[in-house]
Design goal:
disordered N terminus, alpha/beta, seven-stranded parallel beta sheet
Length: about 725
């Protein structure tokens, strides 16, 4: 197998130009040696595209065909540009410009502005949101913080698609775009925003591209100067180019065709920002003599993961689907993807946490495991499940659930209502706890129906809706619970989430996972309405959701788990269906008129734990089948009489607090409250009896068992805990 990426972070600089080509596979070598005319590289996930294009530039420089200063390589993030520069230095090709579109344009604008306009370039507006807020106020349109963010994003979309304020409503209709509010109002705010910028002599990041385009169009002498400087262009992630970026690229090129583009239409997932794969798909039409190379050797994922990825795209429709790449894994076989159906969301989160804990115990580093979901509001239940399992985690691309502004605001409002009690008029018509929470949160933006479209307003609603669902579950589990009890529960949960930052399992949205990879990936919440998301209406939007799932699948190197829950909460109606994208791929499913695909494995029910299945756990008092995770831990219904030794429970809590302080960890990392209650009810006297209690695994038995059994026996416990 030929490696697709460098095996060491500090490889030796190749001695000759030919040595630069060593280790490339045949297709990568073809890319590296195609140095003249237009070149289009269609590169699938995990096929080593960055390696191919950096070796192409380095080979051209080392062979004397390309002058380093004449090459401009552009990509979309500073991280990617920095990685490209680092690889080029390692290959002996320093001096090549590798920048983002904005960085390259800003550099040119700063240099030519005094000559074209005179004086210094106007100040760059770092954050446009404040000026958008002022523009809305000038238009007498009230925007809350989330509407403000969404309106700002709409203005950015309009500018990168080269849409002026007057044309914004028509452009939205043509693009079938879900605007966050009335399009006429946004167009009005957009126009006022542009006026305020002109009045104050400032420009924004989109203006950097627009002004550079304007100068190159109007001043042929400057355009010729830039074209003399840069003779050769490379564009990475070409499927994400916006119309404005493509216009700038055309002006840089002029009538030349020394251009190499790299992309994969099947990984286009940012159309809401103005990105379009059309430029990639039309490249061969615009450049009939282009050299086209397909990279399909996947060095990242096992054949089992690649088989599923290919199967997802085989069902795709539309232009991007016509250009899909059939990946061929170059890795040894691995485990089949695991498909797991759970009764409810808490069971899915707990089952995922157990599987992750097993992987870590088997030697997979926590930092090489990821849980990926469609929207950030899904993170809270997985944060809690991992915390309960004692598994460290980190959030990528989102704040922790209890640190989100809307969640903090909601907590303040709920706390105030709890203190006011019956004196709060908001609660006059609210008879039970969930109704009280809904009444309070309705003042913060929660509604019975979700807002249309996506964006910050929708994210805020999802966070508040998660709190409403939490209140419903809390009231169901604790009959007679008050608003004050719920606030205390929220405080306890929030405190548990504020553990010291550690390297752990990554929790991320599918969008935030683009460009990353892990040994093990858990794709969760794969139900209709979430994947595809409920506001994806058009065929194009549905296909982008399919591509988003494809991106998630191709993040996995070895272990891949896909799961869904049939209901939201324990005991709820099992009305949900697995995502349509897995039809014909997951075992036991099929497409109308299509043969069943997918390899091996099978659908597990309830999570595949070595413990008893959820459906077999019965209350030890009344014999009722238990489905709630907390009740299952106690082995009894929440409302059934408890024979818990209250004194023992308090001694265990005091001991747990001391242990947590000595270890520098949250209390839940020692034992959760439910586990302590179960211990205080069972009063175990042997290792076996203690080990039989849910939440006491082998690791915790070995670590804390002696102390716990001593406390249960009425003995005093001294000394401290030792870190594992």
């Amino acid at each position: 197998m030929t490696a697709a990426t460098d095996s060491t972070p500090f490889p030796q600089v190749p001695e000759t130009a030919d040595a630069v080509l060593d280790g490339l596979d045949p297709e990568q070598r073809e890319v590296a040696t195609a140095l003249h005319g237009p070149v289009c590289v269609l590169a699938g996930a995990g096929t080593g595209k960055t390696r191919a294009i950096t070796h192409r530039i380095a080979y051209g420089v080392r062979a004397g065909i390309l002058a380093p200063a004449s090459v401009l390589a552009v990509t979309f993030t500073n991280r990617a540009a920095g990685e490209m520069r680092g690889r080029l230095r390692q290959l002996g090709a320093g001096g090549v410009q590798a920048r983002t579109f904005h960085s390259a344009a800003l550099r040119q604008l700063q240099y030519f502005w005094p000559k074209v306009v005179g004086g210094e370039l106007p100040r760059l507006l770092e954050r446009k949101i404040q000026l958008v807020a002022e523009a809305a106020a000038r238009c007498r349109i009230r925007l809350d913080r989330n509407e403000l963010r969404d309106t700002t994003s709409e203005i950015e979309w309009a500018k990168v698609t080269q849409t002026v304020p007057a044309d914004y409503p028509a452009a939205v209709a043509k693009a079938q775009r879900d605007a966050p509010r009335d399009v006429a109002e946004i167009g009005q705010i957009y126009a006022m925003y542009e006026q305020l910028k002109r009045d104050r002599g400032v420009i924004d990041f989109e203006d950097v591209l627009l002004l550079t385009v304007g100068i190159l169009q109007d001043r042929h002498d400057i355009a010729d100067q830039i074209r003399r400087q840069y003779q050769h262009f490379v564009v990475d992630e070409y499927q994400d180019v916006s119309p404005l970026q493509q216009r700038l690229l055309d002006l840089w090129l002029g009538d030349r065709d020394n251009l190499c583009v790299v992309g994969d239409a099947s990984q286009t997932i940012y159309s809401f920002t103005g990105a379009t794969p059309d430029h990639l798909l039309n490249f061969r039409t615009r450049h009939p003599n282009a050299t086209v190379v397909k990279l399909v050797r996947d060095y990242r994922s096992t054949p089992q993961v690649v088989h599923l990825a290919n199967g997802l795209l085989s069902q795709a429709v539309g232009r991007a689907a016509e250009h899909r790449l059939e990946l061929i894994s170059q890795r040894d076989p691995g485990p089949e993807p695991a498909y797991t159906e759970y009764a409810d969301e808490p069971a899915e989160a707990e089952g995922t946490a157990r599987r992750i804990r097993d992987l870590i115990a088997a030697g997979v580093p926590a930092g090489e495991i990821a849980v990926l979901y469609r929207i950030n509001a899904q993170s809270e239940i997985y944060e809690q499940a991992l915390a309960d399992a004692g598994v460290p985690y980190q959030l990528r691309g989102a704040e922790r659930f209890f640190e989100r502004a809307e969640v903090r605001e909601a907590g303040v409002a709920l706390r105030g209502a709890a203190r006011a009690g019956g004196n709060d008029p908001l609660l006059d018509d609210a008879g039970d706890l969930p109704s009280q929470v809904r009444a309070v949160l309705s003042t913060k933006g929660w509604t019975t129906e979700p807002p249309a479209g996506s964006g910050a307003v929708r994210d805020r609603w999802e966070s508040l809706a998660a709190l409403v669902r939490l209140a419903e579950d809390f009231a169901r589990a604790r009959a007679g619970a008050t608003l004050g009890d719920l606030v205390a529960e929220l405080d306890e949960r929030a405190a548990a989430q504020h553990a010291p930052t550690v390297q752990g399992v990554t929790l991320a949205s599918l969008h935030a996972a683009k460009g990353l990879e892990w040994d093990a990936v858990f794709l969760v919440g794969l139900t209709e309405g979430m994947m595809p998301i409920t506001y994806a209406k058009t065929d194009e939007q549905i296909e982008e959701e399919r591509r988003l799932l494809y991106v998630g699948v191709t993040r996995a190197r070895l272990h891949l788990s896909l799961s869904w829950a049939l209901s939201r909460s324990p005991g709820g109606r099992a009305s949900r269906r697995p995502t349509r994208f897995l039809a014909g791929l997951r075992p036991g499913s099929s497409l109308p008129g299509a043969r069943t695909a997918g390899g091996g494995g099978g659908i597990e029910r309830g999570g595949g734990s070595r413990r008893k299945r959820r459906g077999t756990v019965q209350c030890r008092v009344c014999g009722t089948t238990l489905t709630d995770a907390g009740e299952m831990k106690l082995m009894r219904c929440e409302g059934c009489p408890s024979d818990m030794d209250e004194g023992l429970y308090e001694r265990l809590r005091e001991w747990r607090s001391d242990q947590a302080k000595q270890l520098g960890q949250p209390a839940y990392c020692v034992f959760t409250d439910k586990t302590l209650m179960a211990i205080a009810e069972a009063v175990p006297s042997t290792d076996g009896e203690l080990a039989s209690i849910s939440g006491v695994g082998a690791r915790k038995l070995d670590r804390f068992g002696t102390d716990v059994l001593a406390i249960c026996a009425g003995q005093d416990v001294g000394g401290g805990a030792e870190e594992d």
